[in-house]
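Follow-up to my post from last week.
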Amino acid sequence: MSQQVFGLRGLLIGRYQPFHRGHLDVLWETLERCDELIVGIGSAQESHTLDNPFTAGERVEMILRCLGKERARTIIVPIPDINRYAIWVSHVESLVPPFEVVFSNNSLTKSLFEEAEYKVFPTKIYDRSKYSGSEIRERMLNNRPWEDLVPEQIVEFLKSLDAAGRLSAGANQDE
Amino acid sequence: MSQQVFGLRGLLIGRYQPFHRGHLDVLWETLERCDELIVGIGSAQESHTLDNPFTAGERVEMILRCLGKERARTIIVPIPDINRYAIWVSHVESLVPPFEVVFSNNSLTKSLFEEAEYKVFPTKIYDRSKYSGSEIRERMLNNRPWEDLVPEQIVEFLKSLDAAGRLSAGANQDE
Amino acid sequence: MSQQVFGLRGLLIGRYQPFHRGHLDVLWETLERCDELIVGIGSAQESHTLDNPFTAGERVEMILRCLGKERARTIIVPIPDINRYAIWVSHVESLVPPFEVVFSNNSLTKSLFEEAEYKVFPTKIYDRSKYSGSEIRERMLNNRPWEDLVPEQIVEFLKSLDAAGRLSAGANQDE
Amino acid sequence: MSQQVFGLRGLLIGRYQPFHRGHLDVLWETLERCDELIVGIGSAQESHTLDNPFTAGERVEMILRCLGKERARTIIVPIPDINRYAIWVSHVESLVPPFEVVFSNNSLTKSLFEEAEYKVFPTKIYDRSKYSGSEIRERMLNNRPWEDLVPEQIVEFLKSLDAAGRLSAGANQDE
Amino acid sequence: MSQQVFGLRGLLIGRYQPFHRGHLDVLWETLERCDELIVGIGSAQESHTLDNPFTAGERVEMILRCLGKERARTIIVPIPDINRYAIWVSHVESLVPPFEVVFSNNSLTKSLFEEAEYKVFPTKIYDRSKYSGSEIRERMLNNRPWEDLVPEQIVEFLKSLDAAGRLSAGANQDE
Amino acid sequence: MSQQVFGLRGLLIGRYQPFHRGHLDVLWETLERCDELIVGIGSAQESHTLDNPFTAGERVEMILRCLGKERARTIIVPIPDINRYAIWVSHVESLVPPFEVVFSNNSLTKSLFEEAEYKVFPTKIYDRSKYSGSEIRERMLNNRPWEDLVPEQIVEFLKSLDAAGRLSAGANQDE
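User reply:
Got it. Predicted complex:
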């Protein structure tokens, strides 16, 4: 995307539990392809579970810490689940400022936005066997090293949240 | 049910994802056993998932296309889930017009309506190894032939919805 | 609407608290203008209040009793409020079968469906000083005659619901 | 109520914003008329507003402080609003233990429980011009004396909650 | 906890599906460690499922029947799920009267209340291989003897609820 | 606020229906008093009504257009209403990144954040007789000039939304 195309805005949605190096690669790549990028934080209402340990606000913080000067053209918006896919695109449209294109490799996201007549582009493929939210959460839970898998700017922040503690709490709900 | 018993209304509830030949058999049979039939479409809020690919409105359409002249004594009502079984019968009662009997082979439905003092009758047993919503969705997902399992009146309509596409989207939610 | 135009479906939405002679006039008129009519019952989740004394199911019953043979080309669908106008059209679309045109004199309904690129036509103007839901509810509450204002087919049904009792209950919520 | 009538349980529902001397009179009177009394706290989800300044938990506390030895046969249960009167009785039934009679002067409560075939008895009439939740909230808001209108056992508790502060906050939502 | 410490209130939360002898042991033990005990009934909105067969009100009843004279210092409060752990402690605080300590062996409960600066104490360990809600529900479902696993005071009550019937209904949701 | 105080983050919440010159004054002033500012957009789920004509996303857009280079230290987050003030602060905390101080003249906001032990500072007083959301909406509705009351950067954007049309739709909900 050439820089002179003023106002082309893209939308990228993820859960970012946590935000990892694969996500960061995609973020840099999509930022190159549009003038402004909206980063939607999915399942914004979730936290403190095995699949979703971090709050939306904590995930906003993770992304902010990685953006550096790109922050000036990035817009981060928490998006609570609505659990009704038939109205999900309208739900997203009502929460974020206007956008023209969507970046996603998720086929449901792709399918829903295409039904609504948006142009959807795939994003860069990163090594999912290496960078994966569930792998990182698993490591955090079992106190194995996870620090190399997330951007270095957020390692201390993640430690301050006692991710391991939250996850082991979520893992261990006895009756 | 003799035809002169004016006003006996029955209730039949299903998810109809999609409406298949087994459902149609049950529909014809229950229509014979009452004067008017309310067809409740369960999980009405769901769509675009592997278990519930079609919207409530699309499921209304499927049933309308099969009813022919029986449409004049059938009432189709979408019923959103309430996820609180203790109040589910009241919830259904508030959404559909008055009815006297319930047709169901589902033991939870049977149990809840019987607690509320409705008469519940079993419905015709069709060949579930052959006609099954999950089997049809599986075939749609894998592009194997499914057309013989649904009423011919809705084959084209289902194709127009790109069922296969929706299902493969739902099947493939990467992180 | 000429009869040979197969499949033109219209959508008409109202709260019908209760369904009155003005509503019936509009129903007959819109039925003439399309091949099939979807009647959406708004605020479907409401009942037993001063503004909304009747359940969605009871309102379905009122309309069924008036339709006569037109029932075969009418589709009645309860529509719960979603209270988020930005996604309301998507919500309606997910609950009713496909439609092409909307009939409404309500400017919010008109505006929202037009934003979603539907064609919206005004409906017949009836005498609102005479036929009005709030007037009828007021009369029911004060035991003044209301029977002339509703279609005669539903007078007995409304009486059986003890509308007056419900309304005076709703009117009198002491602390 | 003679003591040998084992197990007659009554239900009494109020908002108790706050619990005042009129409420206490009704509580004593209904406790005399049954073996066990369930006190339902309505609008349990509300707090910090002009109409509902106190949380459900705070209202439980107010009643506990007044009960003395009658606590052993009283059961206090918060009841969130469900805002669908058609299913409200089922909602209450699912939250409280079984009961046989209802005590209420509220005509909506009376009407809904009677539709569900409960016996509903009126409660003692207290001087509503004197004892009234809205009057007390008004006085709290304007720093006029309210202490005489509530049971003395809860005066200190109410002061500790800074009722006046909460109410003036609720009263003063500037744009 | 010495008995003369007036007003130390503890909070104990469980689902109690059903309330069994292990729960009763914990209840007696925690009652000894505080002056008043709040028993929170979790997942209060659930019932009629395999995991949660009983309503909140039925679970209140079970506990009441076991308490005997301890009822005078026990406060039972149904707590609906909020499914947002980030606000769950605030949700509980708003529904129950003030408390100082929490008793729990559940690590998520412990973690969330400790984040909110409550003191959380472990409870007595009972033989979970013997006393377990899921084991009892399994036995009820398969008509194997379960009576020895629950307090004798509630055996008849549980039988009156047709637990076996509800569970087999929940187990058998055919499509 | 001196620039070397790294990381002092403030929170400012408003509905911004629409964002007007008074809001902009407060925004500039609070940006001077902290290193980073979170702007929470309240009632984020509302739109298309007389009180709340614009979606959350449209309100994000308004603020973005005014920020200029200050965008790099501003974080805009839509905050849906939760309608339970007892848990509102926890709700906000879960949606926004960590903050230390709150800026507000709203006494309910002030009271709730102070109960949660935040420091709350008043904001600059602007001329409310002149700059007021309801005044602007009133003018838009009646096609009187409103352009001078909002920042010039958003005049065109507001016009593109057909604010007048939406408001007159909301104003005119006939039965």
